[in-house]
Amino acid sequence: MTRERVRSPIHLHRKAIELTLRHPWTIARGTSAVRHNVLTRIEHGGFEGYGEAAPNARYAEDAGTVLKALDELAPLLGDDPARHEAIIDRLAAALPDSGAARASIDIALHDWIGRQRGLPLYRLFGADPSRAPLTSMSIGIDTIATMQDRARQAVEFKILKTKRGPGNDRETLEGIRDVTDIP
User: What is the pTM (predicted TM-score) of this model?
Assistant: First the structure.
C-alpha cells in the first residue's frame, strides 16, 4: 500500500494598518497625511512570509478592496509556496484588476521562499548590494521653505526627487539648490 503525502494549504493572514506620514505628502493629484495599507502573512510548513499592499486610488483600490480581493485569492494559493510562478499566474487570472493584493502575496511568497531556504531576499534574487541603484528621497509639493527644510534633512540620500506644482518650478528648484547640491 502506497502512502500519499497529504499537503496542507498555505494559510493567508491579512490586516489593514494606518500609517501616519511624517509630513503631509502633496503631489499634483492631492495631499495625504495618512496611508491605509494592508499587511499580509503567509504560513506554511513552519515558515512565514510577509508582504504589504499599498493600494492607490488611481487604480480604484483601497484597503477595503484589497482585503476583499485577498479573501477571494486565499483559496487559490494551493499547498506549495515554492510554486510561486504558478500561484501568481492563478491569482492574475482570477482577479486581474487586484494589483495591490496580488503584489502583497507575491512579496510574501518571495519572503517565505527566502526564509525557507535561509537566504535574504537579495541573495535569493542573485543581487549584489554593492551594485544596487542609489535610493532617492522624494520631496512633495510645499512651500519653498518647507521643501528646503526637507532637502536639508535628506543628507543621507544621494539623489533628491522633487514634486513640483503650479507655476513656480524655477523658484522651487533654485530654492532647493540654495541648500543642497545633491543631484
Answer: 0.86
- CATH number at 35 reads 3.30.390.10
Domain that holds residue 171: 133-177
Beta bridge partners of 75: none
Note the pLDDT tens digit of each residue in 55-114. Answer: 999 899 999 999 999 999 999 999 999 999 999 999 999 999 999 999 999 999 999 999
By DSSP bridging, strand 47-53 and strand 11-27 are unpaired
Residue with the three cell numbers 526637507: 150
- The answer to whether 114 touches 121, Cβ cutoff 8 Å, is yes
Question: What DSSP character marks residue 167?
Answer: S
Q: In this structure, how many other beta carbons lie within 10 angstroms of the beta carbon of residue 61?
A: 20
* Burial class of 26 by CB neighbour count within 10 A (0 to 12, 13 to 18, 19+): middle
Q: CA 60, CA 67: separation in Å to the nearest integer? A: 13
Q: What is the rounded distance in angstroms from the CA atom of residue 98 to the CA atom of residue 65?
A: 8
At 27 the pLDDT is 87
Please give the tally of structural domains in the chain. 2
Q: Determine which helix (DSSP H) or strand (DSSP E) holds 36, and give its type and residue range.
A: strand 30-44
Does residue 88 belong to any structural domain of this protein? Answer: yes
Maximum distance among all alpha carbons in the chain? Answer: 81
Instruction: Examine residue 21 and state whether it is found in any structural domain, yes or no.
Output: yes
